[in-house]
Amino acid sequence: MTRPAPASGRTPAKAPAPASAGPATPARILLADDHALVRQGVRLILDAQPDLTVVAEAADGVEAVARAREGGIDLAVLDIAMPHRTGLQAARELARLRPEPRTLMLTMYDNEQYFFEALKAGASGYVPKSVADRDLVEACRAALRDEPFIYPGAETTLIRTYLDRARTGDRLPERPITEREEEILKLVAEGHTSKEIARLLVISAKTVERHRANLLHKLGLRDRLELTRYAIRTGLTEP
Any idea what the CATH number is for the domain that residue 115 is in? Predict the structure, then answer.
């Protein structure tokens, strides 16, 4: 039996097939470390992932901030101990940018203080370089989801430390010096004179000397050599 034709006299057109979704754009990463070999190794780890790609590199904290200001960065992976400006100092600067890139600290120092300082600076956490090949990719993905990252093995120590302090009524460790004093301490330890520091930070040499005197008093130190040793011990600079 012949089937009746549609009222319009035309065969209904088929609905168009849904367009297939293309691959997601990889997250754009800025990698900052003063050791070229470290940057090369970390870049190999990250570029091997389909959802991550390193688009910029920096050799110190000042350069990292400058690269981030150019835009196009979703995540900055920052070494803590870099010349001129530490990764923590750079992270504080990046937190003021709009749009604000996520930040993640990479360090050779396994220290609970760095974890809390990283969070205060706006970072998602930190990854020791010793386990970067195992944990860095997941840490980057967590940071891009705006989630804190605690590398496996640190959770128990951090939680135990927090609970012990809560039980005894102790507060979490406070920063012994201000952010400006930290900047000056780092530059002093790197061998810069007061005039050079004043030029780098756009302040007067007299202000530098006053901050330096405050550092000696606060930290109970006597001279530039002891300031340098303190900066090395706390990871502000490398030997």
Answer: 3.40.50.2300
| C-alpha dist (Å) from residue 92 to 46, 116, 117, 146, 224 | 24, 13, 10, 16, 26
Q: How many separate domains does the chain show?
A: 2
Tell me which residue of 37, 58, 86 sits closest to 187, measured CA to CA.
86
Rounded to 5°, the CA angle 104-27-106 comes to 20
Task: Tell me the residue range of the domain where 49 lies.
Answer: 27-155
CB neighbours of residue 86 within 10 Å: 28
Tell me the C-alpha distance between 188 and 182, whole Å. 10
Q: pLDDT tens digits, residue range 212-226? A: 888 888 777 778 888
Q: 168 lies in a domain?
A: no
Strands (E), 108-227: 125-128, 149-150
Strands 27-32 and 75-79: parallel
Q: What is the pTM of this model?
A: 0.64
Residues 138 and 35 in one domain: yes
What would you report as the CA-atom Rg of the chain, rounded to the nearest whole angstrom? 25
Phi-psi region of 153 (alpha: psi -120 to 50; beta: other; left: phi over 0): left
C-alpha to C-alpha distance for 54 and 65, rounded to whole angstroms: 16
In single-letter form, the type of residue at position 59 comes to A
Q: Are residues 40 and 108 in the same domain?
A: yes
Amino acid at 60: D
pLDDT in tens, 7-38: 444 444 444 444 444 457 899 999 999 889 98
Cα–Cα nearest to 204, from 230, 84, 231, 212:
212
